[in-house]
Amino acid sequence: MDSLDYGIIGNCRSAALISKTGSVDWCCLPEFDSPSVFAKLLDEEIGGSFEFLVDEKYTIEQRYEPRTCILITTFTDGDNCFEVHDFMPRYHKEDGSYVAPPEFIRYIRLVEGKPKFKVRYDPKLEYAQGETKSYIKKDFIASLTHEIKFDTVFLYTSFDKEAVLYGKEISLTEDGFFLMGYNEKIFPTTTNKAYLELESTKVYWLNWSARTPIYKKFNEEISRSALTLKLLSYDKTGAVLAAATTSLPETIGEVRNWDYRFCWIRDASMVIKVVSELGHKNIARRYLKFIIDLIPDKAEKLQIMYGINKEKKLTEETLEHLSGYKGSKPVRIGNAAYHQKQNDIYGILMDVIYEQMVKFSVDIENGEDLWSITKGIVWIVGNHWHEADKGIWEFRTEDRHFTFSKVLCWTALDRAIKVAEMLGKHHKIEKWKPLREEIWNDIYENAWNEEVGAYTQSYGSKHLDASVLLMESYGCVDASDERYKSTVRAIGKELSNDGLLYRYKNEDDFGLPSSSFTVCTFWYVNSLFKIGEHDQALELFEKLLGYSNHLGLFSEDLDFKTKRLLGNFPQAYSHLALIECAVNFSKKDSNEDIKESMRA
Fold first, then answer.
1. What confidence tens digit (pLDDT) does each residue in 12-69 have?
2. DSSP letter at 494?
3. Of the residues 210, 228, 255, the one at which a domain ends
4. What is the pLDDT of residues 134-168, one digit of tens each?
5. Other Cβ atoms closer than 10 A to 321
6. For residue 192, what are the domain limits?
7. Which of 25, 72, 247, 258 could disulfide-link to 331, CB 3.0 to 4.6 Å?
8. Strand locations in 467-551, DSSP E?
9. Helix, strand or coil for residue 452?
10. In this structure, are residues 181 and 103 in contact, taking their beta carbons and an 8 Å threshold?
11. Is there a cis peptide before residue 188, judged by omega within 30 degrees of 0?
12. Among 185, 210, 235, where does a domain finish?
């Protein structure tokens, strides 16, 4: 497999990645950030997988059930055919709560003939540390390990358990199922029950998708991206993950391998803004509750990221026994970036708070908590905006005065003032306006480089940075501003490489980046669109969409030459920016249609 040709299934508790040949190559249970049960993704020899092996005459195709997160892999040799419907159960109970157990189901549907297959069932618990042994019991196959710590998983199936465990050939004569879960089941599991779970989960996703508006252009891409973002949300606390994986490298064979199974305030806030604009309010309410729970002390500074269960300490360590994706070591769990200082997170969070208060009105649940957080953010920004930080790209060495960080400090004040206006807090408005103006003047004077003809990465620098494109999105400058237009064109000229953008081209802690950070190209598309370069923006956007995998999914990075997907997968950043671009193009077309009909 040359690229990240995977589909994702999940239930907002955990997720699994399934290859285009139907192999479960990554799954952590019981939750997203738990140790892996299957990790072939990170070590093809010892990682563990759950596969279907068929004769070479079979062709294999894969798709999602439309508007759902049910993945269908079809195996056919012309005369014999079966489908594997993979999903993690998620649906409403009668009391309105959710069923979302730590398990996945593989429903096997007989389509025609009498297909034959073998199963490779090879769980490797606790990141494949130590030995995992499997035993056939009366009702299930139990797999356990106790060398590192004790852990077990259970496989229920309608097929002969011995044939499954020992890879013997199975002839399919009727529908069947596999259910692999973290917990032993209390009630018997049958094919009919598995089918009911499948249909209940299908109804849940169809209902969820029905709340996403239908767009004239790129509707499929918007829908799939929205579903993917939903899969990266964690219901229990409201956290939103940056991605479902760890240690997928930005470049094959290099060391930029990070664990992304955490909640970055920046990424999550951007996701929430986009998804709530599509009409999904519950995900926004849960996330705001997550934030409120994290800030018990009014003067407490936000970390840039947290564990999905609100953990504040995310100690980074390496798993030396795993060879890494395509041999790219090290494999890391935890993330040392949690203690970094990044001043932009306050503006991004304040932007989400403002957006939600507009949408839900001032009667929003926890409104008083959010007003307290607003005041606290202004206090922190007021005391620290002039300080250097690590910036959006998390430079691990020196702190700098990054333009993006300053822009988001301005955003924090701007949105706080707007919230104060909504609440009639006039004394705060008058107090905060001079600070907003002071930050803006500082950016205008120090971030602009006359020689380069652009706002640059940091004060006094000649280096360009794709994050500066977001100045317009946050309202710090207008799209008609000549400085902004000049910045967009300079970034396109300097950072573009065969239609893909570098984040920046100056060397960082690990040398010169050698892959494109996918979200940056989407930002550039959006910026071209905003300054009126619609045709160029659309051409670039459609080209970029062609670089997704076979299911329309994007990772964090793209290889400049091969366009291969790289980095953690699927990446929330990439999909939220895709939605923003697609909605802009769709709205433009709809507006032009309205104008045309009015003229007619």
1. 999 999 999 999 999 999 999 999 999 999 999 999 999 999 999 999 999 999 999 9
2. H
3. 210
4. 999 999 999 999 988 999 999 999 999 999 999 99
5. 12
6. 6-210
7. 247
8. 496-497, 500-501, 515-517
9. coil
10. yes
11. no
12. 210
